[in-house]
Amino acid sequence: TPIPDYLTQVLDECGGDDGEVADYIAELAQADPDRLAIAVATLDGVVATAGDADVAFSIQSISKPFTYALAIADQGLDAVVEKIDVEPSGDAFNEISLERGSGRPRNPMINAGAIAAHALVAGPGSDERFERVRSFYSRLAGRELDVDEAVFESELGTADRNMAIAYMLRTVGILEGAPPDVVRGYTRQCAVSVTVRDLARMAAVLAGQGRAPDGEQLLEPQVARQVLSVMATCGMYDAAGDWLTTVGIPAKSGVAGGLIGVLPGQVGIAVFSPRLDRHGNSARGVRVFERLSRDMGLHLMEVS
Ligand code: GLN
Fold first, then answer.
1. Is the pTM for the entire model greater than 0.95?
2. Looking at the domain assignment, is residue 301 inside a domain?
3. Pocket residues: Cβ below 6 A from ligand 1
């Protein structure tokens, strides 16, 4: 079967209306819960899609691995690991999860670690820092990406929990900037608007060890390796073990319903479906990946 036909068939067969659209960010509650899309991008930039592939949604937590990558590129791995650990927490994404003693967030895929990673991106001020983040995502996606201002305003208005996390990080010496500025930048990063096509391309750069389809090295291979390792162990929050055993590839989810997976050396995959399971991962997205993994033998622990 040609790839787009196969992808359409997978979407048709992984239906269901279980799960709930995120509503702690008011704007996300407005999303059409029935949207469903998939994109698969090869290392040389060819993208196959099916479903609502041109529908835009906010990147949310799928931004976390990419900002972590930029922080490492800017500060070096040692300096970043000194501030953010790499241990799976088994916690929910918004857990106030800091290591006893050092105060380090458990990993960069939960909010505490992601807020710390955002602050480690270089930039003379918070506006420049955000602009570097946005422009880096754009290079990864191969087009200019912008903020969905409605999502941004809506989330910032109720960002009390993330603000609390940022103040906590500041008291333990992990965060140097002013918490409100950092949370503002982090919230803008989460509100960057993307399609599955963009996300599949971004994932494919990680799959290609940091190399973009045009040959430009956007990330050092060791940085891509670090990011993929953390995605594999922490990318699906408290469902990370379930995911690694059933699907078996590094992944990252976001509360708007996006989900990316990376098959190193092969492809980047993105799915979008707004209804979330109890872990905050896209319910249909997880099923689509389980199906792809079975059909295509994606599981990294399996020798085909
Ligand atoms: N911006 C969201 C938050 O900080 C991201 C969470 C997510 O996608 N899991 O709560």
1. yes
2. no
3. 60-61, 93-94, 111, 155, 162, 190, 254-255, 280
